[in-house]
Write a structure and sequence with these properties.
Immunoglobulin-like; Glucose Permease (Domain IIA); 3 domains; 4-stranded antiparallel beta sheet; 5 helices; 21 strands
Length: about 325
């Protein structure tokens, strides 16, 4: 079917259907014989019918939405541990599209008029493969394949003393587990995350480890470590609400003195092994605001800050959030 645009239709009318154009065409013809004027009436009837059909068809086609559901996935070449940002544009107001990956559904949140975004985590324990994304909205379904690239991670050997290698208490595990489930509709962060400590990076994200000579199969370093002196300031990497405060005295035997921040929309930060805690649950802090100091509490071999960034409860690499930003 030919789609008549407004330009093509108006260009068609003056030369074919406009009365002036019609007069010019008729004036160039030979004068009809007597009694032949009645032959023009059927032509005018056919012309009118043709014009009506063309206008109706053009208006109908121009009003139809073309490709209502638009989806963009970033980064284009994700690696193990990256966070996928799925931006969806729709024509439907107030109805969030749904996004699923590998049989798991993730929430989407409005980031503008008829514009939504879902965040999908990947980890160092995943296998490089073609990820299958399914996006539904506006009565449409889009199936998208994203190639998850391989990435090499370093291996460390850690030796812990008997006291430092004790298992975590059920209290700290349950409280941290509940904290990571937070999905607040509001988005508190804005732009790139900032460095939470001025110390040097001592352990990067994703490192695999041997603990006391035994390889931890399902383990990867779930964050970034900053080596700094005891008492050095720790600041919030982005705006958020303090949703977790745990102390060694309460049973945080492995995590040590801990602060958890909710950045909104399923994004959370956790800070471990603190010496002092300078915030309380419910406090809202801005990026760069001091929340505590570096320490060596819990299962720690020396003074350092462990910063873990989580998306929907899954530990992801904080580096892209710091240098590229996921706004």
């Amino acid at each position: 079917m030919t789609l008549f645009s407004a330009i093509s239709l108006t260009s068609y009318l003056p030369t074919r259907l406009h009365p002036a154009g019609l007069k010019l065409t008729l004036s160039q013809q030979k004068k009809p014989k007597i009694g032949s004027q009645s032959l023009l009436k059927p032509r005018f009837g056919q012309l009118k019918t043709t014009l009506t059909i063309l206008i109706a068809t053009s208006i109908s086609l121009l009003c139809e939405p073309v490709g209502a559901l638009q989806v963009q996935v970033k980064p284009e070449n994700p690696r193990l541990g990256d966070t996928l940002s799925v931006v969806i544009e729709t024509n439907t107001v107030g109805i969030e599209p749904t996004v699923s990956m590998e049989q798991k559904t993730y929430p989407s949140f409005a980031v503008g008029p008829n514009r939504y975004r879902a965040l999908l985590p990947t980890t160092p324990l995943d296998q490089p493969r073609s990820l299958q994304l399914r996006v539904s909205g506006d009565g449409e379904v889009k199936n998208i394949s994203v190639a998850l690239q391989n990435r090499s991670f370093a291996t460390q050997r850690i030796w812990l003393s008997e006291s430092a290698s004790q298992p975590a208490t059920e209290l700290e595990l349950s409280r941290v587990r509940e904290f990571k489930k937070l999905i607040t509709p509001q988005k508190f962060w804005n732009g790139k995350f900032v460095k939470p400590s001025s110390g040097r990076v001592s352990t990067v994200f994703g490192v695999r480890r041997y603990y006391n000579g035994v390889f931890a199969n399902n383990y990867y370093h779930r964050g970034v470590d900053y080596a700094a002196g005891t008492g050095s300031p720790v600041v919030a990497p982005a705006a958020g609400r303090v949703a977790l405060v745990g102390r060694v005295s309460e049973g945080f035997r492995v995590h040590g003195n801990t602060v958890g921040m909710d950045h909104g929309q399923g994004v959370t930060s956790i800070f471990l092994h603190l010496n002092t805690i300078e915030v309380k649950p419910g406090d809202f802090v801005q990026a760069g605001q001091r929340i505590g100091t570096v320490g060596s509490t819990g299962a720690s071999t020396g003074p350092h800050l462990h910063w873990g960034l989580y998306v929907h409860g899954v530990s992801v690499d904080p580096v892209p959030w710091r240098f590229q930003g996921l706004n």
